[in-house]
């Protein structure tokens, strides 16, 4: 309607302009006279509509404009109300956004505080874990070092002339020291397993030699208890395989020690044969340890692999132990994808067994054949060994062990003296270096010796002596330039193996053995 009205006014203006003013004047007079006669009636309106159309338009214009004004006003009111509602909604939304922003700021603040607290807690946990590791390493060193002295001196006494009663006392001493050593090992190993910090190696090793070492280590206790200890290797079992020899030895030693502990009479058998579930890319071996001991009740079989658990309290009182050996065994095998199983009958004995798969050792992974030690107490006349050890008792034990093998020994008290001795151009075939010493530790001493001998094609072999045989210690020793590691208390066959590895050829041997102490 507004558009029509807008179009009407130009037409009306044009129509009026085309009229002469005098005509308009006469029309006005006529209309005035007629209005005085008939008044404002619908008859007049009809007359005007029939005779003067543009006057009808003028007459109805206020009505049309009023209607338009009403419609426009109504729309304006609607728009104002709509705008008012929109403003209210906008204000509400704005208030809500302010509230949300305030809430988000609070949440962000809380989250940042929580994250900061978590970071602090993580740092504290890491610091505590590191402190605990340092404590365990220090305690391991502090406990094993005197144990090395006790066990070493007991071994030396074995070769002395003793009465039967003295031999009995000595064996009791050796057994107690070995038992304490095993307890310490179990506790430290279980702690590593609980924290998933124990890794599995993959190296080529001589399975036959590993079994022979186990047999030697457990034969003494078997003889003391008058038990028969047998080892049965099936004909097709390979001599060389690829795996973790240290963990396999630990598992088998735990099982053999367990069998020896709970067997009063009869025999113990370690048997190894090919497993039935053959795989094309690996060698599966079935290991089993059988005994004629006290056996285990069926309802107790499931719990014997739990930590700190034995079959019953009477067993603990009677045989001792922490109840960690089998728990450690289960975890070690699980790390290697294997599972320990047991068959047992009360009063007749037990059979522990597991299947483990090894990668076959090819010619590239098998080390060069080492000459086998043919005697129980081998000798290396003229071999010269530098020993860096700060504990006097351990010095005595190592010295006696080496001189009994006709080795010339030079003793120093710390790493600084070891570096000075090597720098003096003295010739040695081997250095046995304790890791933990005052003034200068074995790691720093090794680094300095390696720098001194950087020009040599064949640097001096250095083997670590440590009471804390951990993966971290092994890594640190390798990074410092050490060639190997011997654990305290030292096991004679392992010491002999190291000596055999680094002994000079017979034509290189010089003068008779002796002992020199550097101060």
Secondary-structure content class:
alpha/beta
Distance between the termini: 122 Å
Label the overall shape. elongated
Could you give me the name of the CATH homologous superfamily of the domain at 199-360?
Histidine kinase-like ATPase, C-terminal domain
Q: Helical proportion?
A: 55-70%
In CATH, the topology of the domain at 199-360 is named Heat Shock Protein 90
| SSE run | HHHHHEHEEHEEHHEEEHEHEHEHEHE
With helices defined by DSSP (H or I, 4 residues minimum), what is the helix count?
14
What gyration radius follows from the Cα positions, in whole Å? 50 Å
Instruction: Report the mean per-residue pLDDT as an integer.
Output: 79
Low-confidence stretches: 1-10, 368-374
Tally the beta strands: 13
What is the correct CATH architecture of the domain at 199-360?
Answer: 2-Layer Sandwich
Beta-strand proportion: 5-15%
> Tell me, what is the CATH class of the domain at 199-360?
Alpha Beta
Q: Please give the largest β-sheet.
A: 7 strands, mixed
């Amino acid at each position: 309607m507004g558009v029509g009205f807008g179009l009407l006014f130009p037409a009306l203006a044009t129509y009026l302009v085309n009229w002469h003013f005098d005509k308009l004047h006469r029309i006005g007079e006529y209309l005035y006279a007629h209005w005085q006669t008939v008044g404002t009636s619908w008859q007049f309106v009809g007359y005007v509509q029939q005779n003067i159309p543009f006057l009808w338009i003028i007459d109805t214009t206020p009505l049309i404009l009023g209607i338009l004004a009403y419609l426009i006003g109504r729309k304006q009111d609607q728009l104002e109300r709509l705008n008012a509602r929109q403003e209210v909604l906008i204000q509400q939304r704005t208030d809500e956004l302010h509230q949300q922003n305030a809430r988000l700021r609070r949440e962000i603040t809380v989250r940042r505080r929580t994250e900061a607290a978590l970071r602090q807690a993580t740092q504290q946990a890491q610091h505590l874990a590191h402190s605990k590791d340092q404590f365990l390493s220090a305690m391991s060193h502090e406990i094993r070092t005197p144990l090395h002295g006790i066990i070493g001196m007991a071994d030396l006494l074995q070769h002395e002339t003793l009465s039967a009663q003295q031999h009995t006392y000595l064996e009791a001493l050796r057994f107690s020291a070995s038992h304490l050593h095993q307890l310490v090992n179990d506790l430290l190993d279980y702690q590593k397993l609980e924290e998933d910090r124990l890794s599995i190696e993959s190296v080529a090793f001589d399975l036959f030699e590993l079994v022979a070492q186990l047999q030697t280590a457990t034969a003494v206790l078997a003889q003391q208890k008058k038990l028969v200890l047998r080892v049965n290797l099936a004909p097709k079992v390979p001599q060389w395989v690829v795996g973790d020899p240290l963990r396999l030895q630990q598992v088998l030693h735990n099982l053999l020690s367990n069998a020896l502990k709970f067997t009063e009479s009869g025999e113990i058998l370690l048997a190894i044969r090919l497993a039935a579930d053959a795989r094309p890319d690996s060698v599966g071996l079935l290991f089993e340890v059988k005994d004629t001991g006290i056996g285990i009740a069926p309802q107790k079989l499931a719990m014997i692999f739990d930590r700190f658990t034995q079959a019953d309290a009477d067993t603990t009182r009677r045989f001792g132990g922490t109840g960690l050996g089998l728990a450690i065994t289960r975890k070690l095998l699980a790390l290697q994808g294997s599972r320990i199983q047991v068959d047992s009958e009360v009063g007749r004995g037990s059979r522990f067994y597991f299947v483990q798969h090894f990668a076959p050792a090819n010619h590239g992974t098998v080390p060069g054949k080492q000459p086998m030690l043919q005697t129980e107490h081998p000798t290396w006349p003229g071999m010269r060994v530098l020993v860096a050890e700060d504990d006097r008792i351990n010095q005595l034990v190592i010295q006696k062990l080496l001189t009994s093998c006709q080795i010339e020994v030079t003793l120093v008290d710390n790493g600084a003296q070891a570096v000075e001795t090597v720098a003096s151009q003295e010739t040695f075939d081997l250095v046995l270096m304790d890791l933990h010493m005052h003034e200068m530790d074995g790691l720093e001493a090794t680094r300095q010796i390696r720098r001194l001998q950087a020009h040599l094609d064949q640097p001096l072999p250095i083997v670590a002596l440590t009471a804390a045989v951990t993966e971290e210690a092994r890594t640190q020793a390798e990074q410092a330039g050490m060639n190997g590691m011997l654990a305290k208390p030292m096991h004679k066959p392992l010491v002999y193996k190291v000596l055999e590895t680094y002994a000079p050829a017979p034509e290189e041997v010089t003068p008779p053995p002796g002992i020199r102490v550097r101060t």
